[in-house]
Amino acid sequence: MESWKETPNGLIKVFKFRNFLKAIDFVNDVAKIAEAENHHPDILIHSYNRVKIMSITHDEGSITYKDHRLTTLIDSLGPYS
Amino acid sequence: MESWKETPNGLIKVFKFRNFLKAIDFVNDVAKIAEAENHHPDILIHSYNRVKIMSITHDEGSITYKDHRLTTLIDSLGPYS
User: What is the interface pTM, i.e. ipTM, of the complex?
Assistant: First the structure.
């Protein structure tokens, strides 16, 4: 599985889907996790079928265990074929 | 109602909501419109409760009637209070 990039803006990864609606399904599942964790990443739906997730801990201004936990849970989603 | 900004990247507007889940509700409604119109904007969910919509006609590389139509339909959504 492709890994998350550690950047000054947080952990970042782009997910590609079969079509737009599959991308939206993924976004809804990410949203459920974000609410359950009370940790809300930025989510960019772009280029029809791609979703970019950006997770940082704003209170700390850096990547923390909350981001690693969130991204691990996001990686467990799917498949969306 | 606040208007859309015409930029080189298309028509852009940021919508603010009471919380994250209201923002997600909005995104799902925008997604339904995008599918019905077969015209898919980029959608950025950011800062917990904000959604930025960016609509351009990629085939033309510019803003066209498709973008004006889409943004008008998006403005008709809600409220999400």
Answer: 0.96
Which of B27, B35, B48 minimises the CB distance to A21?
Answer: B35
In Å, how far is A44's CA from the nearest CA of chain B? 4
At residue B1, the pLDDT reads 66
List the structure tokens of A55.
């997770």
The architecture of the domain spanning A5-67 is 2-Layer Sandwich (3.30)
Residue ranges of domains in chain B:
5-67
Mean pLDDT score, B51-71: 97
Residues of A in contact with B47 (CB under 8 A): 42
Q: Which residues contact A14 (CB under 8 A, 6 or more apart)?
A: A50, A51, A52, A53
